[in-house]
């Protein structure tokens, strides 16, 4: 009886925590949150996938922009998602190597990434290289288009990143969220590029 009562209480607590959605922008700003100590329950649209997680943009924001994207770390928790999937999330807010993220794996019993629908991925925000130079933090984990022309100044290294120089003189480090490294050549020029701004790596 005690075991059954304990399980029921835990489920009630989990249900209560999931009753309210946490805005992604609040998580990015850390409003009322302590890294590693707070559960957050946003709802997001999948914008990109990695081996150990995925990026989302806030589902409830009509025109997502700065502060509205975040990385969801799944770790060893299996997931099978596609771009445009709408996900109800529960995980621990944390800062990891400069990246704000939701850690579903660390949340244990409470951690979840439940697909609740499908929609169109919102269009990227147009950001200039000067915007990123002035303050890149608001665009972390957001889908952006950089319209500045740029030239490749170094080939991809073992980490899969390479350097570019924008027309205004701004250097940007690129990675495989942007372009397939196998297609990159020295001196190659881009009129524009679209991808996820992953500030902890500068790509």
Give a summary of the structure in a few sentences.
By secondary structure, the protein is of the alpha+beta class.
Instruction: Tell me roughly what share of residues is in helical segments.
Output: 10-25%
From the alpha-carbon coordinates, what is the Rg to the nearest angstrom?
Answer: 19 Å
The biggest sheet, with number of strands, parallel, antiparallel or mixed sense and barrel status, is: 5 strands, mixed, barrel
Fraction in beta strands: 25-35%
Question: What's the overall geometry?
Answer: globular
Write the element-wise H/E pattern from the N-terminal end onward: HHEEEEEEEEHEEEEEE
Count the beta strands: 14
Low-confidence spans: 1-19
Mean pLDDT: 87
Quaternary form: single chain
Sequence of strands across the biggest β-sheet = 2-3-4-6-5
The number of helical runs is: 3
Q: Structural class, from helix and strand content?
A: alpha+beta
- Cα(first) to Cα(last) distance is 53 Å
Essential attributes:
alpha+beta; disordered N terminus; 3 helices; 5-stranded mixed β-barrel
Write up this protein.
- The chain has 203 residues and is an alpha+beta fold.
- It is 14% helix and 34% strand.
- The chain has 3 helices and 14 strands.
- Strands 2-3-4-6-5 form a 5-stranded mixed barrel. The chain has a 4-stranded antiparallel sheet with strand order 12-11-10-13, with no helix packed on it.
- A hairpin with a 3-residue loop joins β2 and β3.
- The N terminus is likely disordered.
């Amino acid at each position: 009886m005690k075991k059954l009562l304990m399980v029921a209480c835990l489920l009630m607590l989990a249900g209560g925590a999931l009753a309210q959605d946490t805005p992604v922008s609040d998580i990015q700003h850390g409003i009322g949150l302590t890294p590693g100590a707070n559960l957050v329950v946003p709802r997001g649209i999948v914008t990109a996938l990695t081996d150990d997680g995925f990026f989302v943009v806030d589902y409830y924001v009509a025109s997502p922009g700065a502060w509205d994207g975040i990385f969801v770390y799944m770790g060893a928790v299996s997931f099978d998602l596609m771009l445009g999937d709408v996900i109800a999330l529960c995980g621990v807010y944390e800062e990891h190597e400069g990246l704000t993220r939701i850690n579903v794996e660390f949340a244990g019993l409470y951690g979840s990434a439940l697909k609740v629908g499908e929609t169109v991925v919102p269009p990227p925000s147009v950001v200039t290289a000067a915007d990123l130079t002035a303050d890149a933090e608001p665009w972390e984990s957001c889908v952006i288009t950089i319209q500045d022309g740029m030239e490749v100044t170094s080939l991809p290294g073992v980490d899969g990143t390479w350097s570019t120089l924008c027309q205004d003189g701004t250097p940007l480090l690129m990675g495989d969220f942007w372009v397939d490294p196998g297609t990159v050549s020295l001196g190659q020029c881009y009129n524009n590029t679209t991808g996820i701004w992953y500030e902890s790596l500068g790509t």
